[in-house]
Amino acid sequence: GTVPYVGTLLNEIFFDLRSRIKQERINRFVEELSKYIDGISEDDLDLEFIKSYEFSDTFESILKRVIITSSNTKLSRFKIILTKSFQNRLPIDNSETFLDILQRVSENEIKILNHYRKIKLGEIVPDDNVLERGDIDMAHKSTISKLRTAEYFNLDKKQYVLYLQNLFSKGLLYDEGMNRWDAHPFEILEITALGMEFLKFIEESNNNT
Fold it and tell me: Which residues in the chain belong to E strands, given as ranges?
């Protein structure tokens, strides 16, 4: 009958094939990581920290995520994070939180978050025309800067709002337009302190990019 055949097929897919894929991902990641570390001076490596339980926990945590990640860009970010750990430049206290976030956000969302960081730092200045919080003026016509729109990112509006909602739900952005009578939800977003720290965590250095 077909049932034994299906059972054998599922066993091959979920055990044999998945095991091979996981092992291949780990092997490829470790190989790329080794090449990356070869370019780092031994003086910049914290050998004592590498021997610690904290490093071991971080290494294991990242490998668990590597085996379920197919995105080369995301794998590259994991490599950067682990390299920072080799140098003991990683904030251990929040590492699990940030690794979870990285696993659950897309590169487009990281791009949007970085954009709002630039607004926060004054590197980009939106020309919004909205009332201050608490002000009411029935004759006022608010306008939102194009720097805050889907068109700026060449995205569909619905997809852009979904990205904003995901970043908002993870505490990386907050809705500055809330409680403003002339602003709609998810029109005026600002990056949070968590969002700022997350970007530092996933970047190769602590300099803004």
Answer: 173-175, 189-191
What one-letter code names the amino acid at 166?
A: N
**Tokens 């805050």, residue located:** 148
What is the rounded distance in angstroms from the CA atom of residue 119 to the CA atom of residue 143? 17
Q: Which residue has the tokens 């490998």?
A: 63
Coil/strand/helix, residue 173: strand
CB atoms within 10 A of CB 189: 23
Q: Would the CA dihedral through 109, 111, 114, 115 be positive or negative?
A: negative
Q: Which residue is listed with tokens 């080369």?
A: 72
CB burial of 36-70 (b: ≥16 within 10 Å; e: otherwise) equals ebeeeeeeeeeeebeeeeebeebeebbbebbeebe
Residue found by looking up tokens 């487009």 in the block: 108
Tens of pLDDT, residues 177-200: 776 666 678 888 899 999 999 999
In single-letter form, the type of residue at position 142 comes to: S
Tell me the pLDDT tens digit for each residue of 4-28: 555 566 666 656 777 888 888 899 8
Taking the C-alpha atoms of residue 68 and residue 57, their distance in angstroms, rounded to an integer, is 18
